[in-house]
Amino acid sequence: PKEYPEKSPVRVFVECGSGISRLQHEFISKVARETADHLVGEEAILPVLQRIQELSWEIWESQNEESDKALSSMKLSSTYAPSFLKRTLIWFHHIKSVQKRKSIIHWGQELRLGGYCKPGFPGILLVEGERDDVAEYVSRLQKLRWQAMNVRGEEQQEAVDAHHVNALRRFGVGIRELDETGMSELAAVCREADLESLFLTGLKIQRADK
Is the pTM above the cut of 0.85? Predict the structure, then answer.
């Protein structure tokens, strides 16, 4: 595309040989396109090719082990348990305690979450990661003493596996702490990541175009 890579993802067309089933072909194409979408603004051709190679290798390995279990080994059979990427926005009356701020950063790194924390009055915390890890993170925070803490916004996306979860991430791993006056910066980050609706929901603000 003319606007690649700044504004448009690389176009992905995947062709497979006879050893790949239609369902596997659709899966590889879907993950490749999502990887390309996630890398808008960056050179994406090599990462997309590498992802396709990884998936093809996984299929080849599973078919060599036992062809009738190929889909289940990739968590694509009717009995597979999907993974989920979850995003949660939490509002706090305030985040001032140095120790609590350290815990927010440390626990996020431990659980491989990504996102942003705006301390001060009010405190805003936006995180994303594996659904179970986000749930554990929120549970730990709720056990701390807060004047007020409310989960105001949540969204989740189904993923095939951990690789797919990573492809869906809008932020890298790690919680970045903004300045106490960084609400505008957080708003800009969310807008750029196409998460403005989640941000406004957290502040109980309705979009002007609705």
Answer: no
